C-alpha cells in the first residue's frame, strides 16, 4: 500500500491530485462539456462500476438498484454498450429475466475529476442509460468480445466460482439522461452516443 | 491541490492508503463483517452519495436511478434514515411524488476500504435500502434536523438556487439488502438497523 502511496505522491507533482484516484491514472482527459456524445462515452468508458436498476420481483415491483462492475469494450474498442457478468444467485439477474426494463447509473464523482463539487451538483456529471437488460447468447461472437472486455477491466472475474453460473448480460440502450453542467439534461440521442468514435485515449477519431 | 497531496502522503505512512480518499480521513474504522447492523449503519453514515431509484413516469415505468447526495444525521446524531435535498426540476422527485416506491443503493468502493477487491465482489460491501420516498413537512422539527444534517455534510447545498424549490425528502425503509462478504445477503431487519446506536465515531454505544 505504501508503494502505491509513493507512486501516487510522485504523480501529484506532475499531473495534480485529481488525476490520481485509488492509485489509478486516468487514461483520458475530460472532454468539453458541450460535446455531449464525447462526454457521455468518456464517462462510461472511464468508469468501472455503476448501479444497475431493475424491477424487483421480491419487493412488489420496487425499483431495485445493485452495485455492479461493467465494461463497454477494451480501451481501443469501446462501444458505449455496457456489458455485465451476473449470476441468478443475485436478484438483479433474476429480475431482468422476468422484466427487461432496466437502467445503469454512473457518477463522475469516483473518477476524482469533479474538483470540489458536491456529488449531486450538476457540475459533477451523472448519466443514466435506460433500456432493456438482456442475456447475451453464450456462444456468440458478442459474448466472446464482452467476456474479454469484462475480464480485462475486471481481472478478478476470471476466478469467480464456475458453480455460480455467471453469464454475460448487456443493456440495450433506449434513452440517455446526462447532466454535466447547469441547465438541465444534455440533449443526446442513442444514435449520437453509439456512433461516436473514440481512440484508445478516449479522444474522437 | 499539492498541499492536499502532501497531507495525504504523510497520512499514508501512519494510517495506510485506504484511510485517505480524496483528501478525506474516515472518521470510523470498518465494523466486523458479522455485525450486520453496525456494518450497515457504518456504510450509510460514512458515505455521502448514492443512487436513488424511482419508477419513471417519462420512461414507461422503467426503474430510473439518479446520483444524489444524502445525510442520515450529524456524525453524533446518525439515524440510519437517509434524507435528500431534491427539486421537482429533476425526474426523481417528480417520480416519487407520483409513486413512492424507491430504493437507495450505496457502495463501499468509493470509501477506499475495499482493498484490491473488485467493486462487484461480495468482499466490497453494497447496501440497498428499499422503501417509500416521501416529502418531509417543511415546517416540522424533522425537516429542521434533516436540513442541518444535509447542509453540514454538503455545505454547497446552502447556496443552491432558491428558485429551484429544493425540498427535503426521506426514505422510509421497508427492506434492507446488504452483502458484505461471501454467502449471500446478510440477515438484517429494519428494526435491527434503525435501533442500532452509534457514537460520533460510528462505534456501538
From TrEMBL, chains A, B:
Gene Ontology CC: cytoplasm; extracellular region
Domain CREG-like beta-barrel, residue spans: 31-194
Compartments it resides in: Secreted
Keywords: Glycoprotein, Secreted, Signal
UniProt main location, coarse: secreted
Pfam families from the UniProt entry: CREG_beta-barrel
Residues in the signal sequence: 1-23
InterPro entries recorded: CREG (IPR014631), CREG_beta-barrel (IPR055343), Split_barrel_FMN-bd (IPR012349)
Similarity section: Belongs to the CREG family.
Protein's name according to its UniProt entry: Protein CREG1-like
Species assigned in the record: Durio zibethinus (Durian)
